[in-house]
Request: fold
Amino acid sequence: DRPEAERVVSMEVTAGLARPAPSAREGNGADPPSAAAKVASRGGQIELAARTPSAMPPGPPIAGFIVPINPVIRGYPYIPPAYSSGAPQVAQAGEEEPNETLKAAASSPTPSSVGRPARASSAASTHGSKQTDEDTPKPAEPASRCPLPYCMLGLCGAIVIAGIVAGVLVSMSAPVTVVVQSSNSKQRWLTDAIALFNAKAFHTSEGRRIEVTASYGGSIFDPTLMPHIFGPATIQSVEQQNLLSPVVSSPATNCKSSAGVPVGFAMWRSMAEALGWPNSTIQFKTLAALAQSPVGWASLGPQYGQWGKFHMGHGFPFHSTSGRLAVTGMVHTITNTTSGEQLSAAAITSPATRTALHEIAKAVSHMGPLDTSLLEKMRERGPSYLHTVATHESNVFRWNREHGPLGTNTLEEPLVFVAPAEGTFWVEHPLCPLDLVEWTSPRLLEASRVFVDFMLTPEAQMLGFRHGTRPYLTMQGVLPADEEVFSPENGLMPDLSPETAPVLPLPSNDIVSVLLSTWKAEKKPARVVCVFDTSGSMAGRPMAAAKDALVAFLDTMADHDFIRILTFASTTKALAPQGTLHEVRPALQAAVRAIQPIGSTRLFGSITQALDDINDLRAVDEGSGDSFSYIVVVMTDGQDNIGGEAEMWSRLPDGSATEQLHIFTVAFGQNTGSSATILRRIATQTNGKHFTASESDIGDIYEQISMEF
Reply:
């Protein structure tokens, strides 16, 4: 027996926290704990001096990352090994025999199977005397479970910890995914290289596997893709992006050239042969003369008169690398600026240059955001529609391979690549790991650099030959060009090099700005009629989004473009004012903002009226001596419920000639129904494009349409 001052309280250990356990002798003046109680304490309860919290034992050890928050396991208490003696429990006479679980617990030496004995029982007094033998063990009583709130809290904690551990383990085994944004001119090559890279299972320094995916388009950086590598056609696109929002530090150091691809013109073989291909080089001056001749191909001889006027296509220079370089090449030729010389702002803006640009622009019959869309138009419409398109050499190989006799066999005749003899732009197709974007990390940056290094290996570089791409190692003289690929049979010349087609220097960013603004002022003027749905179904956010898009569309158009807006609901009305943009832009934008939706949907009749308006404008333009693009843009969110479809179809052009009207259609929202099919057919027949728009992207759709003229 112990003095009262040193009395102990029985403490129950639950998830490493000690709290007083109930005692039959505590707080009622009873005798101090007996020896049996001390023995009991060694079996499942811990005697602690009731002094300070520091006297409490630490919690049980972590096993398998999970702390046993609830000590009651399978009906009996968990006792950590440091706190249990493993003493066997013996039932006393007249007491209940321990249940089977407690029997098993009593016989097991493991901590988790040690049974917890009960406090000293009062049953001994019923046999006439109190137990005094300190060595006589007492029977175990049923285990006391922890209170429900503590158990639930413990269970939740265990789940959270388990989830964290599982998440860490999964994240350590998940691959590092690198996203590449690339120009479309190296799409086929990069697709093959990525497949090979992923199959080889490269890893980061910490053992994480690297997987690469890619998105292809133009050379304008798209942050919505959240790329980790930017691969435009030229380093200039990277520098221009850095002026807007920096994405990579020191492009000259961190970007690696992957190829050397000349930018020139795709031309039908018969037409190129008429200009001397492949026996002699073709100068851009020859193409410029064709573009400016009122008789076109007949200027070369009467045998070529069947081809009519010269029709050229190029990408929208503000968006397309090949389109911008085509215009730059024009100015080099006009100003007689030879290879190695930079253009000057004074030379670009001189009256002679502006006049020549305007004359050449008359022959530009089709533009678009990407040169590949124009090549597809050549394939669809044949030699009578477009005669040449500014593009990359690799695209000529691709179109011949995919659409020639070995592919879909839908080309009327093969295409050939023409590199202007005065000078040609050779683009390096840089691959730039982006170290300044907010969505990158040291791990992603490391993985990105691993892939870029792989792209410069001979194994990856040689894949470029499959797709008519001259890889960087070929330009460095390490890999010889594949003569089976670069052959006249494929429309390419094996001896084409910076020596045979001199390199034109890329202009500085300041010169590019001057060049683009000058081109926009001198491009072929457009006559545009917008057909704009103002029916009642457009009310609310759809109308607000559509009006914002149309206002922005007016900003993108050139000052000398003509605009007329037809609003339609139950009837069709011309929105005032109308005229060239430099005269009516602010007032017309204010009128657009004031539009209110109401009424039904007179779609077909409104398109027919737009056709009449275009014909009226064309009649006026014929006496001007100038050349124009004729455009109709139709936007609706529903189906026609007035009528007039048959008349509309009877008035539409067949799309056989580039001088005809181009119609661009926009199905806005999800309720256009059968109208979407009709709108698509209208756009296809007239060499326009069909778009499906929502409130979030209708502005982008109108911007894409503005790149078509």
About this structure: The first strand starts at residue 8 and ends at 14. Residues 1-136 have pLDDT under 50 and may be disordered. DSSP finds 23 helices and 22 strands in the chain. Residues 124 and 223 are 82 Å apart (CA to CA).
